[in-house]
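Worked example

This section walks through a single chain of length 221. The input is the sequence exactly as stored; nothing has been trimmed or padded.
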Amino acid sequence: MGVRILLTAVLGWSAAALTISLMWPQIWTSCVRRRTAGLSPTAIWLGVALPAGWIEYGLLIGDPVQIATNAVGTGAGIAVLVALLAARPELRTRRAGLGAASGAVALLLATAATAGLSNLPGADPRALSSALGVVLTGAVLLANVPQPLALLRDRGQDLSGVSGSRWVLGAASNLSWAVYAAALGQPAVVVCSVTGLLCSLVVCFVLATARRPRAAALATA
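Given that input, the structure is written out below as tokens.
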């Protein structure tokens, strides 16, 4: 039992390290190199709200791995969002903003409501975490699906703003989270991680197949 607990802890912190490391390629691409082409505004907005929700989830179940990972994730999400809004003024209009940010706002409201309820006398943290987990699972679908769909919808678009390293690390990170959550009996995290893994693999496939024609053209030039 002690060995299993130790291995689970190691796996959890390894997943956390992968998650934190995968944020930096996109920050470098969007914030330093100022490339945002190909990014889904809906996914980026949810990239801010989701970590905040997982922090509350971690607080409810007492999981320091979730708390630490998503504290960093919230900061990274805000950085990429600021870079996106700075580079694409059309996204700062009220109509575009409401369309892209509506899901993120709803998730933040649900997270705030859960945090408020958890402070009431007689509150059941496990029940609240289960309810929040359902909300987060739906939000993960909204956050992860738009990016691969956007890339599949237009295979000829400019992909310079999409960091391939971020999605490769994302696949490894989601796989680690799925195994970690399965070991701890966290079904919401398992579903979210498997969804993230599948979406990451789709994005990696699109990026890999998009680069082949260009490489072939350069080789024959």
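What to look for: The chain has one domain: 2-220.
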